[in-house]
Amino acid sequence: MEVQQYFEQYGVVKNCFLLSDKMTGFGYITFESEQVADDVASKTHVIDGREISCKKADMPSQPVKPQETSNEKTNQIYIGNLSSNTTEEQLRDYFDKFGKIEKLTLVTDPATGKSRGFAFMLFEDDESVESVMEKAAEHMIDGRLVQCKKETRSFKQEIERED
Question: How many CB atoms within 10 Å of residue 100?
């Protein structure tokens, strides 16, 4: 059964975004009603024989401004949809061809030490980011097509938001 289809039994699903590999996964589901989200978070769910943990996400009190506009300049990128086995070395090896990397933060699970599926990278200049974004639909790392976005917030702020 599809995840979105499963959760539609509780109410209208406005958006369903899932990231997974063969063993683990996570996602975000936006319901039309906050009451439905509260109801879903209070129950135990099993989809295709697997127990699914649901938590209500903290939403910002004010709308978040869009992260990227076509003329926005930045020397930072967000890299998502990484395999849990992806290493900093693999990321450096891959992205080094786009420009000098000043800082790389691969966000890891404290318990396992494995990647949580995303990273942040700071290049020496914004032209490197533009080069990465020109090929945004082609970045394949560790057997996975990864997602790259321009990042304008600081690394620390973004990592705290994801925890």
Answer: 9
Say which CATH number the domain at 97 has.
Answer: 3.30.70.330
Residue 63 lies in a domain: no
Inside any domain, residue 67: no
Do 16 and 89 have their domain in common? Answer: no
Residue 95, H or E segment = helix 88-95
In tens, the pLDDT along 94-145 reads 999 999 999 999 988 888 888 888 999 999 999 999 999 998 888 999 888 8
Which of residues 111 and 69 earns the better pLDDT score?
A: 111
Count other Cβ atoms within 10 Å, centred on residue 132: 21
Q: What letter does residue 98 receive in the DSSP assignment? A: G
Which of 113, 65, 110, 68 has the alpha carbon at shortest distance from 87? 113
Distances in Å between the alpha carbon of 137 and those of 1, 62, 86, 132, 148? 28, 31, 19, 10, 8
Residue 4 half-sphere exposure, CB side, CA atoms within 13 Å? 8
Domain that holds residue 34: 3-52
Whether 31 is in a domain gets the answer: yes
